[in-house]
Design a protein that fits this description.
Number of domains: 1
Radius of gyration: 20 Å
Strand order of the largest sheet: 3-4-2-5-1-6-7-8
Number of strands: 8
Strand content: 5-15%
CATH class: Alpha Beta
CATH superfamily: P-loop containing nucleotide triphosphate hydrolases
Largest sheet: 8 strands, mixed
Number of helices: 13
Length: 329
């Protein structure tokens, strides 16, 4: 099982769209996929499910069928994390449903982190709740891939979610804000990883299942750039060309390689087009852009764009699989 989080503390870069499409592509290629929505905004859940399904999954009362519902015993101090409900989207894709109420877990996680230094067993149970819940759900779904969507911030929820992930992919927009985002999140990832290695040795319960917290960066994906022919316009290219050096310096803590363009950078997993004209069709059909058919309106130039989208996401899926030590058909 490969567990990959998709993370950028800068919002609006297409992160959730990326997770959604990769889940469908991996399933298309025969993989068993569990998508996990740990963003309190629950945007991934809203992409996968219509409102009438959400009304059933977010009932008024004590037992929401969401990630928050699985965590409620820990949040209330009355028990441990439960195996999350899995909403089956098709035979190969399951979803651990997001919940706006998840934001109430932030304070609990913030309080637990320093208490781990004191070998507090309940603090370790809180800090590993995401990991243990997702692990149980993945086993139930027999998942070969777990894709985790998290919110755009450096808070306690994301720290716990990233610790629960073996790998991380960083989506970037072609702008100054994404460049600054790299400068912020890189040191945070390295600090979280180093701190968890220190804390893990203080766990007082040898039977508690713990994540290794390695948070291994696989690379970055440049999202939603405008295209003229096969290249983005100069207004975007100036920022894209700075990503290779900044990624190495901020995320990997290495010396930057000068004059290396993103398209030649092995850490650049993909440069994806916006597919702006296809997205309304895809949202109405509730399918990824690369699965649109003529009956959905994908005819003429749209049909050609669908074929290009399929190739783009297949190549990206294979690159991520390769970085994880796996093979995607």
């Amino acid at each position: 099982m490969k567990t990959v989080a998709f993370f950028n503390n800068k919002g609006g870069v297409g992160k959730t769209t990326l997770v959604y499409h990769l889940a469908w592509m991996l399933a298309e290629r025969g993989e068993q996929v569990l998508a996990v929505d740990i963003d309190p905004q629950a945007n991934l859940t809203a992409m996968f499910l219509p409102e009438e399904d959400l009304e059933y999954l977010w009932p008024m009362g004590e037992h929401p069928k969401t990630i928050f519902g699985a965590l409620r015993p820990i949040i209330r101090g009355l028990g441990d994390v439960k195996t999350p409900h899995i909403e089956i989207l098709n035979p190969r894709i399951g979803l651990v449903v997001g919940d706006l109420a998840l934001s109430t877990f932030e304070d609990k996680l913030s309080d637990a982190w320093p208490r781990c230094h004191n070998r507090d067993e309940s603090a370790f149970r809180t800090m590993t709740a995401f990991y243990r819940g997702v692990k149980a759900a993945a086993a139930s779904h027999q998942a070969t891939w777990v894709l985790i969507d998290v919110g755009p911030n450096l808070g306690a929820i994301n720290r716990a979610a990233l610790i629960a992930s073996r790998h991380v992919v960083i989506p970037l927009g072609p702008d100054l804000f994404s460049l600054q985002g790299l400068r912020n999140l890189g040191p945070s990832l390295r600090a979280w990883r180093a701190s968890w290695q220190e804390l893990a040795d203080k766990n007082p319960d040898a039977e508690l299942v713990m994540p290794d917290g390695k948070i291994e960066p696989l690379g970055y994906v440049v999202m939603q750039h405008g295209v003229r022919g096969s290249l983005p316009p100069k207004a975007y290219q100036r920022w894209i060309d700075r990503f290779p050096a900044e990624y190495r310096q901020a995320v990997l803590d290495e010396s930057p390689v000068q004059s290396l363009k993103a398209e030649d950078d092995p850490y650049c997993l993909a440069m994806l087009k916006h597919y702006r004209s296809l997205m309304p069709m895809a949202m109405e059909a509730r399918k990824p852009v690369f699965a649109l058919k003529p009956a959905d309106g994908a005819i003429g130039a749209h049909g050609e764009a669908v074929r290009h989208a399929y190739t783009d996401f297949l190549v990206l899926g294979r690159r991520i699989a390769d970085r994880c030590g796996a093979v995607l058909s």
